[in-house]
Fold:
Amino acid sequence: MTRCLASISLRCFGYGVVLVASWLAAAPAAQAQQLCPGVAVTGVTGPITNGSDCSLLAMGSTINALYVGGSAADEDVLSLPGSGNGVIFNNKVTLAGNTTTLTGVTSGQVLNFTLSNVSTGLSYVAGVGYTNTVPPFGPVYHFAYFDFANITAYDAIFGTSGPLITASELHYIRTNGGFSDWTFVSVEDQSTAGGDDWNDLVYAFQDIRMSAVPEPGSLGVLACGALALPWLRRRPRTELLNMSPES
Structure:
């Protein structure tokens, strides 16, 4: 029984270590990475098949924002209710490359950014799941978050549908921390699969982070390994050396 428990614990702990190592090794290699993507929406084609199912959190008392552009027939307005910032971006009014600093937030605060489609009267909140009407499908997340390593990675997602990053926007990003310092957000203003492309409003933030955590299965493996450590420490060193995962 003791040998069996040791085998299970060693295996579990070993898998946890391998999992962490693989995360660390894989992270730098990603050129264009959507953060916490939702399950692909039925009927949607293109590089983005659903938005992101996690929330955005403030890292301090201010957030820098850059408006990249938009590609939508409807008028869309971005706001952060309760912050006192009013309209942040409007895809029919705000010029591409416009920057602003958001205030009225605190570190760790969940940022309930809201997209209001003025043309249809519908509104969507970041990190909240909704249901498409045609065809019926849920949950659909209307805000998609991305990390891009460079302009080439951005173009891999938006190079066909737009909006493209202008030369002045690229200069601003590069002189303000570079791509690694910015989280990009693209928003969808429709509730039908035929119109879902997540490029109706595209902007980027500094000084925010995700609320996402590892998948439940991954957490279980890590927890198993962590729980095994105290028991393993109590075993005589010679006994542990004589144990193998296949015993």
Notes: The longest strand covers residues 63-69. The two ends are 11 Å apart (CA to CA).
